[in-house]
Design goal:
By secondary structure, this protein is α+β, with helices and mostly antiparallel strands. The chain is built from 10 helices and 11 strands.
Length: 445
């Protein structure tokens, strides 16, 4: 009699253990969640038991790399990783009933997935790599991940180029007009910025400065939730400092040093023209970097134009000084020929003044005159006129003596060169101080 009850108890224990063993499999969990067979209802409808219940989609974005910033097309290429969390009210279970299973994965196509897109994206759908499976938790929390090579539009402000910072928005929005679908982040923006900076693989020319998140709802015929990631990036200016800013600065220094070159041999003018051509080459390099759509002139362009203008004016000043020096040498030759001619005229006049009829012993003999009396008066009148013309010429010569004597225009050229050097140096210092104040402190902020 005692054997039969023991057998029944043993069989009951075997049945209980077998039933518990079957509940430890994922298959039994899928049967419990009604996911072992195709269920289109769970894939097509928003997973709420009451349609007025809001579905809160928590979306986090981590920036893995800034690959390229195209100033001409105003686009930014980046590598991002996206994760989304939302609750499915129909897919819950008690983990203790299934041997402590607290997480499982199901095919993505079997569940409802929020259709969230990036508003600024200009690349095709093929650049998005979504996981084929989503994670499911006992509370009904669904976790989906994706990674994307994103090319997004961004209004780049290049006024401070290359010491510029850019703020680009990445706006996540639902493609369906449903005010009951709301977007927000799972982690705060400070944490996401630190994670992005920690896991950023590719920095390149740019570095991440900050990342803030703003969420809002718009109503344009239907409610639509938006989640905006405001990414601030800063350019690393060292390359442009080496190939543009420092060479232009050195060319200005060389142009200032050219004022100490002697002007007589014409080397100063040729040196300045060479500096001007070098600046033209750097301007061609700058043309390939900056877009033509910029409203305001960037500071780097102002820097190049001001440098080109200063050197151009310096070339004109060197041409003027060279002309005055050459003109001085020509005036010196003309002055010497004029002095020789004046000496000849003076000798001729003195010869006309010598007395006629003087004997060798110094006694004057009356000269026989065969001219009429009026003819003699005419000769005296001509002598008077000649004397007045000579005096007028001497007066004019005295007035122009300082201008026609050798060395006058050379002295004027030296004064012009000295004054222009002082003005040039003052303008150079003021311009460099201004560029430093506008450029560098703004970048350090």
């Amino acid at each position: 009699m005692s054997v039969a009850p023991r057998a029944l108890v043993f069989l009951a224990l075997i049945g209980i253990s077998s039933s518990q063993t079957s509940d430890c499999s994922y298959l039994s969990l899928m049967d419990h969640l009604n996911l072992s067979t195709t269920n289109n209802v769970l894939a097509n409808m928003r997973p709420v038991k009451n349609w007025t219940t809001h579905t809160l989609v928590k979306l986090d974005m981590v920036l893995f790399g800034i690959l390229k910033v195209d100033e001409k097309s105003q686009t930014v290429m980046s590598h991002i990783w996206i994760q989304m969390f939302w609750k499915n009210e129909f897919l819950t279970w008690n983990s203790s009933d299934f041997c402590g299973i607290n997480k499982t994965t199901v095919p993505r196509s079997m569940l409802w997935i929020p259709h969230v897109t990036i508003q600024e994206a200009v690349n095709d759908v093929g650049s998005v790599e979504r996981s084929s499976f989503v994670s499911l938790h006992p509370s009904g929390l669904v976790h989906a991940t994706a990674r994307q090579l994103l090319t997004s539009t961004c209004q780049l402000k290049l006024f401070l180029f290359p010491f510029d910072k850019q703020s680009c928005n990445i706006t996540f929005t639902s493609m369906t007009c449903d005010e009951h679908l709301q977007l927000q982040t799972f982690y705060n923006d400070t944490t996401l910025a630190k994670v992005s900076d920690l896991y950023m693989i590719t920095h390149g020319e740019w570095q991440l400065v900050d990342m803030k998140v703003v969420k809002y709802m718009i109503f344009q015929g239907c409610g639509q939730s938006k989640l905006v990631y405001m990414v601030t990036i800063a350019r690393k200016p060292i390359l442009y400092v080496i190939i543009l800013i420092i060479p232009l600065f050195y060319l200005l220094i060389l142009d200032l040093a050219s004022f100490f070159i002697h002007e007589a041999r014409g080397e100063k003018l040729s040196f300045k023209v060479t500096v001007l051509l070098s600046i033209s080459v750097l301007l061609l390099i700058l043309q390939d970097m900056l877009p033509s759509t910029e409203d305001s002139l960037p500071l780097i362009a102002s820097y190049c134009i001001a440098t080109f203008t200063l050197v151009g004016i310096s070339v004109l000043e060197a041409m003027l000084v060279s002309f005055l020096i050459d003109f001085d040498s020509v005036c010196g030759k003309k002055s010497q020929s004029s002095v020789d001619a004046h000496v000849d005229i003076q000798m001729e006049v003195n010869h006309q003044k010598e007395p006629v009829g003087v004997e060798e012993n110094g006694e004057e003999k009356p000269e026989k005159s065969y001219l009429p009396l009026d003819r003699s008066n005419e000769c005296d009148l001509l002598k008077v006129i000649l004397e007045e013309v000579r005096e007028a010429r001497q007066e004019a010569g005295r007035q122009d003596k300082d201008k026609t004597k050798p060395g006058y225009y050379r002295h004027v050229a030296e004064i012009i060169d000295s004054v222009f050097f002082v003005l040039y140096l003052t303008t150079f210092i003021i311009f460099m101080v201004y560029m430093y104040i506008v450029w560098v402190p703004t970048y350090k902020e």
